[in-house]
Amino acid sequence: MPFSDTDHRHMAEALRLAAARAFTTKPNPMVGCVIAHGSEVVGRGAHERAGEPHAEVFALREAGARAAGATAYVTLEPCAHFGRTPPCADALVAAGVVRVVAAIRDPFHAVAGRGFTALQAAGVAVEQGLMAEEAEWLNRGFLMRARHGRPWVRVKLAMSLDGRTALANGESKWISGESARADVQLWRARASALLTGLGTVLADDPQLTARVPEGTAFVPPLRVVLDHRGSLPRGCQLLDGEVATLVAHADDLVPDYGPAVEGFAVPRAGRHLDLHAVLAQLAIRQVNQVQVEAGAKLAGAFLRAGLVDELLVYLAPVLLGERGRPLFDGLGIERMADRLGFERVDVHAFEDGDLRLSYRPTP
Questions:
Q1: Which member of 120, 121, 137, 348 lies 3.0 to 4.6 Å from 356 by CB, making a disulfide possible if both were Cys?
Q2: Using an 8 Å Cβ cutoff, are 59 and 43 in contact?
Q3: What does the DSSP 8-state code read for residue 196?
Q4: Summary count for the chain: helices (H), strands (E)
Q5: What pLDDT does 111 receive?
Q6: Can you tell me the distance from the alpha carbon of 345 to that of 359, in angstroms, rounded to the nearest whole number?
Q7: Are 290 and 154 within 8 A, CB to CB?
Q8: What pLDDT sits at residue 349?
């Protein structure tokens, strides 16, 4: 049975509710819920942060007795297990909800269809698949970790019109304008972890934190550094202890990064670290989305390994010349048949002339 226009409107609202919590729910997924009788909405809710009630609970509280006989629209399958909160499937049944429309099934091992089964066993009609593509994209990091055991990888780059990320001497402050740089901070706040390499630390000594407008609630992203030589300077800002920081190093090294930082060993892959092993370790630590902010060599290494899920490119209306540094290094592409293709997801124009371009690899 096809979904109605009313179904689509309610699910779209549930997705908007979920997306509004992009900064606070990690490592949990973003989930929204709308409870309605036909076109009339009687309850709305969204999951705010890990350990607190899920979206269905907030929506049921608002609906009260009017939840009886209603349809619940949820962006992700209701849970059916006791975690830090009781099962949402049980709460929907107890409230008298007669129909549940879910965008997608939850692949998390403790749910994975059990929520739907519990609802159906109680006589609740269950339908899924409404606006599934939008729900998948919204929680792409959580779903990647649950399904494949690694985080979603977004590579952030700023470049000139002639495709350069820095001058020949490495100077890159600032290619993009103030509005684009402020936008980057919001993308950082969405991420579970910000990752860079030793070369960037030596060149720029970045702080690698999310600096968002005052009063913005967010879970600070973990800082991750790949130190293939075990030579991260003890005085660099990433070792200041201000934000939780991980340093990945080769398993044939035993570096000392001080008490404020956790180091972990991974195998080498050639001269550098095994990026698959790095991401697996981050997934164990419940990292959903990694935003890579690094130089051309590390960015190229992620591409060569097939580990780039999204490109976030800030294009500035400036030229840096033929001696400037490229976006990616070491791709080894010599034939058009070997070129890497991407599909556009989004384009955003800033008033000062910069563009934000979002791409994902073509299948």
A1: 348
A2: yes
A3: E
A4: 10, 18
A5: 72
A6: 5
A7: yes
A8: 96
Residues 155-202: pLDDT tens digits?
A: 999 999 888 887 777 667 788 889 999 999 999 999 999 999 998 898
Q: So what's the pLDDT on residue 165?
A: 82
Distance (Å, whole) CA 296 – CA 49: 35
Where do the DSSP E strands lie in the chain? 32-37, 40-46, 71-74, 99-102, 125-128, 152-159, 164-166, 193-197, 222-227, 245-250, 262-266, 268-269, 272-273, 289-292, 310-315, 325-326, 342-349, 355-361
pLDDT recorded at residue 83: 61
Q: Which residues are catalytic?
A: 56
Contacts for 305 with CB less than 8 Å, ≥ 6 apart: 275, 276
Please report the pLDDT score of residue 333 as a whole number. Answer: 86
Give the per-residue pLDDT at 7.
95
Cα–Cα nearest to 173, from 320, 347, 281: 320
Distances (CA, A) of 297 to 43, 241, 249, 357: 50, 27, 17, 21
Asked if 11 and 131 touch (Cβ cutoff 8 Å), the reply is yes
Can you read off the two tokens belonging to residue 183?
């936008």
Please name the amino acid found at residue 119. Answer: L
User: How far is Cα 108 from Cα 97, in angstroms, rounded to an integer?
Assistant: 24
Token pair 């890497």 is found at 340
Instruction: Tell me how far CA of residue 17 lies from CA of 97, 105, 222, in angstroms.
Output: 20, 18, 25
| Token duo for residue 98 | 């007669």
Model pLDDT, residue 326: 81
Tokens of 32: 């929204």
Strands, E assignment, 47-151? 71-74, 99-102, 125-128
Gyration radius of the chain over CA positions: 23
Residues of the chain with pLDDT under 50: none
Backbone angles phi, psi at 141, to 5 degrees: -70, -50
Write out the two tokens for 42: 């009687």
